[in-house]
Design brief:
Blueprint lengths: L4 E7 L3 H12 L6 E8 L5 H6 L6 E5 L4 H11 L4 E6 L3 E2 L3 H7 L6 E5 L2 E4 L5 E6 L7 E2 L1 H7 L12 E4 H7 L12 H11 L1 E4 L5 E4 L11 H25 L6 H7 L1 H13 L8 E4 L14 E3 L2 E2 L2 E2 L6 H13 L4 E5 L4 H5 L1 H10 L2 E4 L3 E5 L7
Length: about 375
């Protein structure tokens, strides 16, 4: 049988969810498809789950080497003209494969993508979409030649389908760089290689659960990892464009890079290290966890050490600030993505200006010293 589409499920220790992913792939209709399950050295019951399906799927059992290794191994066994990589804790909705395959109606199409419904650990929808913003469509190269990679919205692994021809050009994914987040390699390269197609309706489920989160890692480690990713994207994209006679200005790209802007902001925050107490970081939860610039950091608002959302009003923000100061916080830092706080919470901003000196202010960071309170 001629295979039109391959669904490659990558799994590592997701045995409790794996059968849901496999069933969702096997039950797809329309296109002639195969299901490949790559187990990347699981230590749980995953291989028992795979064995129960016998000849219904193609098993690839390997030692643990990370997500890039799993995707590479799965593609090596895939026969389809279109490939969907499905994370083992996610699932496809009925009809997803057929609709995805229909998007590849022209040889210049490299990727089709769609939003995903977010579900909790038990598979119940939260009402959220990932991503929440509209997805790009068409040929995006001219725009991205000005802004570089990491500047456009894309869904995670299970919200994409790929043209075999594109994957043959960019795989294998470097396994020494992408033990996790290997999907980012493909997401960032694709717009430079061809046309994107967008499916308006969600076609898969994104499962949010504690074991699947990467946000718990130390911020500075995560930043270093993302900068390695970025350099890898740029090297490959620049080489690809150079072969077509197109020169790029990587310095201009860096000005648009979220991660390089965060690196600059981190260097700004390091200038505040003379203060001894923990700093309060206002980042709307975007910077993850861990210490920051060698100091303990507290999210704002904070509850049991976790980010608790933006304050309901000025009075709430002021009360929380004073509580954290009384507990030893020595400074409060706003990163650029939360500068809106300083306009929206005007009473809170007036309280800061009246009682605490501003010790750093630029287009990345605004910081106030909480160690010595001025008289009103």
């Amino acid at each position: 049988m001629s295979i039109e589409l391959s669904i490659v499920i990558d799994n590592h220790d997701q045995g409790q969810f794996l059968s849901t992913a496999i069933d969702s792939a096997l039950e797809q209709t329309g296109s002639k498809h195969e299901v490949i399950v790559v187990d990347d050295g699981s230590r749980d019951q995953s291989r028992d789950v795979i064995a129960r399906y016998e000849d219904a799927l193609v098993p690839v059992l390997k030692e643990n080497r990370g997500q890039a290794s799993a995707l590479n191994a799965g593609f090596a066994r895939a026969r389809g003209d279109v490939i969907i990589f499905l994370d083992a804790d996610d699932a496809l909705l009925p009809g997803a494969a057929e609709r995805a395959f229909s998007c590849f109606d022209s040889p210049d199409v490299v990727k089709a993508h769609w939003p995903m419904w977010v579900v909790d650990e038990n598979g119940c929808r939260t009402g959220e979409l990932r991503p929440a913003a509209p997805l790009p469509e068409g040929n995006r190269r001219e725009i991205l030649l000005r802004t570089g990679p990491t500047t456009e919205v894309a869904p995670p692994t299970s919200g994409n389908a790929w043209a075999r021809g594109f994957l043959e050009r960019v795989l294998p994914i470097p396994e020494d760089i992408y033990r996790i987040s290997a999907d980012k390699h493909l997401l960032e390269l694709a717009p430079f290689f061809g046309t994107l197609r967008r499916c308006e309706k969600p076609m898969s489920l994104y499962r949010r659960h504690p074991a699947g989160s990467q946000m718990s890692s130390d911020f500075e480690e995560r930043l270093a990892r993302e900068l390695r990713f970025y350099n890898c994207y740029c090297d490959i994209i620049e080489q690809h464009l150079k072969a077509e006679g197109i020169q790029v200005n990587r310095q201009t790209w860096l000005q648009h890079s979220w991660w390089h802007r965060q690196a600059d902001a981190l260097r700004d925050i390091e200038k505040l290290r003379a203060a001894e107490g923990p700093l309060v970081l206002v980042d709307d939860g975007a910077w993850g966890g861990g210490r920051l610039a060698g100091r303990d950091r507290l999210p704002f608002l904070e509850h049991d050490g976790l980010y608790w959302g933006s304050p309901a009003d000025d009075a709430t923000a002021i009360a929380e600030l004073e509580r954290m100061r009384s507990m030893g916080a020595s400074s409060i830092v706003f990163v650029w993505s939360t500068f809106w706080w300083l306009d929206h919470y005007r009473g809170f901003r007036e309280h800061l200006d009246r009682h605490y000196p501003c010790i750093l202010s630029n287009d990345r960071v605004v910081a106030f010293n909480l160690e010595s309170k001025r008289n009103p």
